[in-house]
């Protein structure tokens, strides 16, 4: 039987999907399951590893059933999952507690301590990035300090997708894109003992698994996995990709200079480069193959803001965000100047800045309605993406730029991205980009294509290009400059916003901040009235 199909498994922060794809990227079957996040303690966001595997089993079975494709026709399986964080096994290969997700912030104080000691800066020239509070290295150091018995029992350190691949194949491994989130040398793209030494977790070196390239074979479906999922025993499984890289590949971006934006829980902005580039405002990690690098600028400040407001405004509606997006779309055909809307800082869950930030709405009037507030949030999240994109331009030329998520599948929202970024924006017709990126690694692993670049070219995926409209560009340029000015004006207030006093401000700041804030607010009000 011809094996013309692959399966991509994408284990996201809240939903696991399994998708059956044709050789040209057509979706022929889909299964999905929600997976809970466990937040039993403040700052802890965890995933039960057994629950994650059960979700995969059910999603794969549903995907196969809905596709009508027999298991014998599946050439290979690829896996991606929510990246960063930390999953650990004991020496008997069993989960050593729950997996820790990238939304977790338990290690924030330790991270601040490293910052004061200068450790973060010592890591940058080695790794091309500072560890985040949710990086595996930071979480391991936290575990060493606060859970020493657990730390001492660690036999394997890897990541969410690696756990799923282990359940499918019985093989322990990780891939280059995932390892480079914490453990690899920027230049050699191999494991770095120096990183572990600087962060004082060198004893963990023996727990780091073998590192594969994303399109390598990571094993084959075992008998137990076949019985659970309905896949054929012996079906090859590729090493797979970090979720951010998988999404870029699935959208068709594999070349140096390709910049992709994903507006999801995180504001993800990434561009491939043919050489490592270190700088402020981005992390330089490994691409999907050696000799390729991925410069990433991210913050937890994107469409999660929209979901939050939708739940507040329409708590009984399951599709609240879609309803509100439709209301905004109905107004976007008019000039942006005809109906001024408030300005929004999208920092509900975090920001790109080291200082603690807070979300804010500016310029709200009694006549504004829920659609105005929702539009302000959409614009604010895109302004945040623009700030990241402008930072990434410092790494070199941008060949092309694509957007997914955040309502960008709607023409009016896609046009807003083009107008605010002031560049042509490509919108792919792919709706399961992460799963497709994973599936394409499987297609290369089994020999359907010679390279990931060839696999992407072979996909029949229409792109729609939105050109910036000069009149809207001029309006949004003025609003964006006020967005930036208001950010600077608010920074002195963020740290003490909920303290009840102004003690956290210096005397100079308390004297100057109100004046600067008044001037910025006055300028914005004058523009809004134009």
The termini sit apart by 67 Å
The number of distinct helices, counting runs of at least 4 residues, comes to 18
Q: What does the largest sheet look like?
A: 7 strands, mixed
Quick check: average pLDDT? 91
Beta-strand percentage? 15-25%
Q: Tell me roughly what share of residues is in helical segments.
A: 25-40%
Low-pLDDT parts are 509-530
Arrangement of strands in the largest sheet = 16-17-15-14-20-21-22
Count of β-strands:
22
Question: Rg, please?
Answer: 23 Å
User: Shape, please?
Assistant: globular
Structural class: alpha/beta
Domain Carbohydrate kinase FGGY N-terminal: 6-250
Organism: Gluconobacter japonicus
Protein name: Carbohydrate kinase
Keywords: Kinase, Transferase
Question: What does this molecule look like?
Answer:
The structure is a single chain. The protein has 530 residues and is of the alpha/beta class. Helix content is 39%, strand content 19%. The chain is built from 18 helices and 22 strands. It has helices at residues 49-67, 108-117, 119-127, 136-146, 148-152, 160-169, 176-179, 193-198, 223-229, 243-250, 304-313, 320-329, 370-392, 411-421, 433-445, 452-457, 470-494, 507-528; strands at 5-11, 15-22, 27-34, 46-47, 74-81, 87-90, 99-100, 154-158, 174-175, 211-212, 217-220, 236-238, 241-242, 258-263, 267-273, 283-286, 293-299, 343-345, 360-362, 400-405, 425-428, 463-466. The strands form 7 sheets. It has a 7-stranded mixed sheet, sandwiched between helices. The protein has a 5-stranded mixed sheet with strand order 3-2-1-5-13. A two-stranded antiparallel ribbon has the order 4-7. β20, α14 (411-421) and β21 (425-428) form a beta-alpha-beta unit. Residues 509-530 have low confidence and may be disordered.
């Amino acid at each position: 039987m011809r094996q013309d199909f692959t399966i991509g498994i994408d284990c996201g922060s809240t939903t696991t999907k399994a998708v059956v794809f044709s050789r040209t990227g057509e979706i022929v079957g889909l299964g999905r399951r929600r997976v809970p996040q466990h937040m039993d303690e403040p700052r802890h966001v965890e995933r039960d590893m057994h629950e994650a595997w059960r979700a995969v089993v059910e999603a794969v079975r549903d995907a196969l059933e809905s596709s009508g494709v027999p298991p014998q026709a599946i050439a290979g399986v690829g896996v991606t999952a929510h990246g960063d964080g930390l999953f650990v096994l004991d020496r008997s290969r069993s989960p050593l507690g729950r997996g820790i997700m990238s939304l977790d912030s338990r290690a924030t104080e330790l991270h601040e301590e490293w910052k004061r000691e200068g450790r973060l800066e010592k890591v940058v020239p080695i790794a091309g990035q500072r560890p985040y509070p949710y990086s595996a290295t930071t979480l391991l150091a936290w575990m060493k300090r606060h859970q020493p018995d657990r730390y001492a029992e660690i036999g394997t350190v890897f990541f969410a997708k690696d756990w799923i691949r282990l359940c499918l194949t019985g093989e322990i491994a990780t891939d280059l894109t995932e390892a480079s989130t914490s453990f690899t040398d920027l230049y050699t793209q191999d494991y770095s003992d120096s990183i572990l030494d600087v962060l004082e977790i060198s004893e963990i070196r023996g727990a780091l698994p073998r590192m594969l390239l994303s399109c390598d074979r990571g094993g084959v479906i075992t008998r137990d996995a076949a019985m659970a999922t309905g896949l054929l025993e012996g079906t090859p499984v590729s090493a797979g990709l970090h979720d951010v890289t998988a999404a870029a590949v699935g959208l068709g971006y594999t070349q140096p200079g390709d910049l992709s934006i994903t507006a999801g829980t995180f504001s993800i902005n990434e561009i491939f480069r043919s050489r490592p580039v270190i700088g402020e405002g981005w992390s330089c990690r490994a691409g999907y193959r050696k000799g390729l690098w991925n410069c990433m600028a991210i913050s937890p400040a994107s469409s999660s803001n929209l979901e939050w407001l939708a739940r507040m405004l329409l708590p009984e509606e399951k599709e609240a965000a879609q309803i509100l997006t439709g209301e905004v779309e109905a107004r976007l055909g008019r000039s942006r100047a005809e109906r001024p809307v408030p300005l929004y800082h999208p920092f509900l869950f975090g920001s790109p800045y080291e200082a603690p930030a807070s979300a804010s709405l500016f310029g709200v009037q009694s006549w504004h309605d829920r659609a105005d507030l929702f539009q302000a949030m959409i614009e604010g999240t895109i302004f945040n993406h623009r700030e990241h994109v402008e930072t990434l331009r410092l790494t070199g030329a941008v060949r092309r730029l694509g957007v997914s998520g955040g309502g960008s599948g709607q023409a009016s929202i896609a046009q807003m991205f083009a107008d605010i970024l002031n560049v042509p924006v490509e919108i792919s017709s792919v709706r399961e980009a992460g799963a497709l990126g994973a599936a394409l690694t499987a297609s290369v692993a089994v020999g359907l294509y010679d390279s990931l670049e060839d696999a992407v070219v072979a996909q029949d995926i229409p792109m729609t290009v939105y050109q910036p409209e000069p009149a809207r560009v001029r309006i949004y340029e003025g609003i964006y400059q006020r967005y930036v000015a208001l950010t600077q004006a608010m920074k002195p207030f963020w740290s003490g916003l909920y303290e009840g006093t102004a003690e956290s401000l210096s005397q100079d700041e308390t004297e100057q901040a109100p004046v600067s804030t008044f001037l910025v607010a006055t300028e914005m009000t004058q523009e809004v009235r134009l």
